[in-house]
Amino acid sequence: MPEGLYYTKDHEWVEIKGDIATVGITDYAQQSLGEITFVEVPAVNKNVNIHDTLAVVESSKAASDVYSPMPGKVVEVNNALSTNPELINQDCYGTGWICKIKLASSDTKHLMNASQYEEYLKSI
Amino acid sequence: MSDLKKTVLFDKHIALAGRSHIAAFAGWLMPLWYKSISIEHKAVRTSAGLFDCTHMGVLQIAGKNAQQFLNILATNDVSTLKTGRAQYSYILDLAGNIIDDIIIYCLGDDNYMVVVNAANEQKVKDWINEVGSANILNVNRLQVEVKDLKDETLPDAMVDIALQGPASIECLKDIFNIDIDNLKSFLFTRAKANGIDVIVSRTGYTGAKAGFEIFVHPDKAAILWDLILQKGSRLGIIACGLGARDSLRIEAGLPLYGHELAGPFNISPFQAGYGWAVKLQKENFIGKDAILEKSTNFRTEVARLKFDGGSGIRPVRQFDAVLDTNGVCIGYILSCANINNAQIALALIEKQHHIVGNPIGLYYVARNKNHIQQGRLEKVNIGDKLFADIAGKVIERFERF
After folding, report:
1. Which of A6, A112, B243, B398 is deepest in the core (most CB within 10 A)?
2. B45 secondary structure, DSSP code
C-alpha cells in the first residue's frame, strides 16, 4: 500500500497536505466489500470529529461506514462516486478518493503508517 | 475464526479466491465469490457454475418404516417417491413453524437421503431425537435408522457439489457418459467416472433448467471438483461462491430459510408460495393441525419485485419498506440482489397488492446513526405513511428461464 499515507484500524487511508486531508478506504476494505454499487458522501461543510461517520460505501455484501480519521470540516467530496462508485474498487488510493477535510488538528499520533498497517492486516 | 469449520473443498477456495473473500456462513468458512458475484452469476445463466455445497447436512433415514417415519416427520407425501426420485418438503414443529426446508431423495425401498440446510443441520438432528424421545405421534413404533451421511468413515458417505447452468449437461455427459438428457427435473441416477461413484440429481437452487447436484464421497470431493473445472473450462464453467448463489436464487424467486421461510416474520410454506409441498390430505404429520390454520388465514405473502439498480442507486436491503403508490407501507423486503442493473427483491407484502405489474415504492430504513439523526426510521410497520426513495413494480413470483 502507498507509503506516504496514514491508516486506521477501520481501513481508511488519509493523505495530509498542509491543512487538507484526503480520505478513502484501503485495498483490503474494497476487496472485502466486493463490487461497490453505491457511495453516500458527506455534505460539504459538515464538521466531523475523529471516528464520526463520514460516508457509507455499499456493496451487495454490506453497507460499510467510513469513519473520519481526522477532525475538521468537509470541504470537497468526490462527485464522480455518485455515478461511478466502482472507482473505489478500481483505484481506491487515487480516483476512488472519497472526500477532503480541512483539518482542525494535525495530530496523527492515533494513526498507523504503511508498515504498521501492513502488520495490522496480518493480525486480523 | 478458529471454531469455524472447513469443508472438504476449503483448500480449493483458498487457492482460487484467497482469504479475503472467505467468510463465516452457518458455522463454516465459505467463499463469497472468486472473481466477482456478477461474473459468477452470469456464468450460471450462460454456461455453468460449480458450487461447494458440501457444508449442507446429508442424513440417511432407512428401515422398513422409513417411508412412514418421513411422512410423519415432513409435510410432503413420501409414498409418491420411487427409487431415483426426489421431492421438496418441510419439517415443522408442533406449532406449525418451519424447522427446515429439505429435499428427500428415495435411494431405494426403505432407504432415503435427506439434504438439509447447513444452518439447520444440528437443529434437525436434535428435532429427530426429540420426536423419538417424546414419542410424538407414536413414531417409536416405527423402527428407523438415522445416519449422518457426511461421516467420511462410511463407505456410502455423501457430500453435495452443485453444477448449475446450460453447459452442465454437456460437461456431465463428458465426464460420466450418462443419458442425462432423459434425467428430468427431480430425478437422479447413479454414475461413475475415474473410479468415483456419484449420484447425479437434477435438482438445484439457481432456477437453471439444466442444473445438477452431484453427491460424492467426501474423500473424493476435491478430485471431482478439479475434474469438473478441468473438463468444463472449455465450456466456460467456473467456480461460484455464496454471493452468486444468493443472487441466482433471488432472481429465480427461490426462498431461503430465515428470509422467505420462517425468519423474523415467521413465514409459512403457504405464504412463500409452496402450499403444494404441504399435503393436508395426509392422515397425519407433525404440525398438521397448526399448519391447517396457517393454510388459509394469512394476510401477507411472498412476492418478487423489481427496482432500478446498478451504479449510483443505494442497494435495497432486508427490512426496507415496500410502499403502495400513496406511500403507505404494504410490506417488507426479505432479500434483494443487484442483477443486470436492476434490483430484484423478494418481499412479504399484503396479498391484495400482489398483482403483477402493480407499481410500488421503496423506503430505505436507517442504515446508521446519521440516518436516524436525519429522521429516517430504523423500523417500519405495515400501514405506516412514508415516502418512496425509489420506485419499482411487482413482477412474476417465479422467473421463467
Report:
1. B243
2. H
B98-108 β-sheet, strand order: B86-92, B98-108, B111-116, B57-62, B145-148
Angle between helices B168-176 and B221-232 (to 10 degrees): 120
Q: Is the pLDDT of residue B2 over 70?
A: no
pLDDT of residue B157: 97
Cα end-to-end span (Å), chain B: 39
Chain B residue numbers touching A59 (CB-CB < 8 A): 315
Give the helix ranges, DSSP H, for B265-352.
269-272, 288-294
List the single best residue of B36, B245, B311 to mutate versus A (max A Cβ within 10 A).
Answer: B311
Distance CA B278, CA B209 (A): 24
Q: Which three cell numbers stand for residue B97?
A: 413453524
**Confidence band of A60 (pLDDT split at 50, 70, 90):** confident
**Residue A58 touches chain B, beta carbons under 8 Å:** yes
Q: Which residues of B123-220 form beta strands (DSSP E)?
A: 145-148, 159-164, 188-193, 196-201, 211-216
Cβ contact (<8 Å) for B20 and A59? Answer: no
A61–B243 C-beta distance less than 8 A: yes
- ipTM of the complex model: 0.90
B34, B39, B340, B370: best to mutate for the A interface, most A CBs within 10 A:
B370
Instruction: Give, in order, the Cα–Cα distances in Å from A24 to each of A14, A34, B157.
Output: 7, 16, 49
> Does A45 reach chain B within 8 Å, measured CB to CB?
no
The chain B residue lying nearest A39, using CA atoms, is B312
- pLDDT reading at B1 higher than 70: no
Q: Determine what percent of chain B is predicted with pLDDT higher than 90.
A: 92
Locate B16 and state its grid cell.
482460487
A80 touches chain B (CB under 8 A): no
Contact A15, A4 (CB under 8 A): yes
| Per-residue pLDDT at B236 exceeds 80 | yes
The answer to whether residue A56 neighbours chain B at the CB level (below 8 Å) is yes
Give the residue with greater pLDDT, B141 vs B359: B359
The structure's pTM equals 0.95
Q: How far apart are CA B73 and CA B67, in angstroms?
A: 10
Q: Over the stretch B345-358, which tens digit does the pLDDT of each residue have?
A: 999 999 999 999 99
A27 touches chain B (CB under 8 A): no
Predicted pLDDT at B311: 84
Summarize pLDDT for B265-281 with one digit per residue, the tens.
Answer: 999 999 999 999 999 99
Type of residue at B30: M
Within 8 A of A34 by CB-CB distance, chain B residues are 21, 32-33, 36-37, 243
Cα–Cα distance for residue pair B29/B4, rounded to 1 Å: 6
Q: How confident is the model at residue A61 (pLDDT cuts 50, 70, 90)?
A: confident
Q: Which of A61, A63, A86 sits opposite B367 (nearest CB)?
A: A63
